[in-house]
Amino acid sequence: MTVPVFCGIVPPHILEHLVAHAEDDAVREAAERSLALDALNRVHRAEAPSTPEGIVRERVLDTAERTVCDDHHTQRLPGRVVRTEGAAPVPDQTVDRAYDGLGATFDFYLAAYARHSIDGRGLPLDATVHYGQRYDNAFWNGERMIFGDGDGTLFNDFTVSVDVIGHELTHGVTQYSAGLDYQDQSGALNESVSDVFGSLVKQYSLKQTADQADWLIGAGLLAPGVHGVALRSMKAPGTAYDDPNLGQDPQPATMAGYVDTSDDNGGVHLNSGIPNHAFYLAATAIGGFAWEKTGQIWYDVLTGGTLPASADFATFAAATVAAAGARYGAAEVAAVRDAWVQVGVVAPA
Amino acid sequence: MRIQVTRSGGFLGAPRASVLETEGRPDAPHIHALAREALGACTRTPTFGVPDGFHYTISVDGRSPVHCAEPQLTDSQSDLIALVLAQGD
């Protein structure tokens, strides 16, 4: 079968020409699709501001503006509105968990870093639940959070872990701040900061210190009978699960286990174990509530306006060491540097 | 027709692959039509996608694989992917 498809490297002006002039309907439609995808991708990159956020900041409220929609298993976004800000709980616990998770994440960013919502300017928080059928995923589509119900065999409802909700919304924070490219090491950093602040949302809501926290991502998400405790562990990457159906947690904890792959945008969910573990090591060395000093250092780097979108692990590590020095003292600088040394990103002194 | 679907990405990042052979199936003509429509909406290079979204690679009869990613899947892509992942080996 001959199928007209266009590479991502076909320039937009040629695609536009094809849309306007191609005689073959299939060719024209393929060009239209490529243009639409291309535009979407460029929007995602362009949404990262080129200057530090909030230069012109209007007064924004200290309360979230949440809307939860129900997809009714259709995969047609956004779905029907089922709960808006301030409305009473509904009988559907999935809707209420999403609503509460959005609120917990909003409260965390405001209390810990004086950030108003994911864009720093009070952006309304939208979510869609019951996406697709037995759908094993949750993702951020650039505008809203989307949750599947899980298949019930491997995964439960993706709204059960508040750190997963914090993870997805932090993709929004990254989109509006450092705009880390979602591929290779910058993509693994994008994933890692979502795990870091997702875990901190949970730690903040439970008022846990670094020593008390479980440092798990997606605890409670694995269905009954699956051998594992969560989807990822920042404390011990590679140990979250080991199951006949799910396989073994493939995350490396150090650069010695770095995975070179073209899958998963260059292994963004695999190699994120390395910066995840660095954060855990720094946070436990510094001690106390992890969102206070260590989280602040990571937040300063993410939102400081100088981290390149294509930053690799070494660039990010150097930025966190510098940020620790700018805000705190020698002990914090040493703790952060040692953490990156232990995971093999920074060479020992 | 031999249809291979590989899924990568997602919150977990764990890949999953499945192959469906349509020979001998009573619904083969329907699947062939679905595959033609689905592949027509794919691209030859992987797309950027969205954070934690699934990426799919589809290959028919050993030909060069084509790509699509959430959340921009067409109905035919969604239906074909669901069919192959659910009923393939």
TrEMBL record, chain A:
GO terms for molecular function: hydrolase activity. Its cofactor is Zn(2+). It is found in: Secreted. InterPro entries: Metalloprotease_M4, Peptidase_M4, Peptidase_M4/M1_CTD_sf, Peptidase_M4_C_domain, Peptidase_M4_domain. Gene3D superfamilies: 3.10.170.10, Neutral Protease Domain 2. Keywords: Hydrolase, Metal-binding, Metalloprotease, Protease, Secreted, Zinc. Residues 93-175 form the Peptidase M4 domain. Its EC number is 3.4.24.-. It is an enzyme of class 3 (hydrolase). Residues 178-345 form the Peptidase M4 C-terminal domain. Extracellular zinc metalloprotease. Belongs to the peptidase M4 family. This is Neutral metalloproteinase. It comes from Streptacidiphilus cavernicola.
TrEMBL record, chain B:
This is Protealysin inhibitor emfourin.
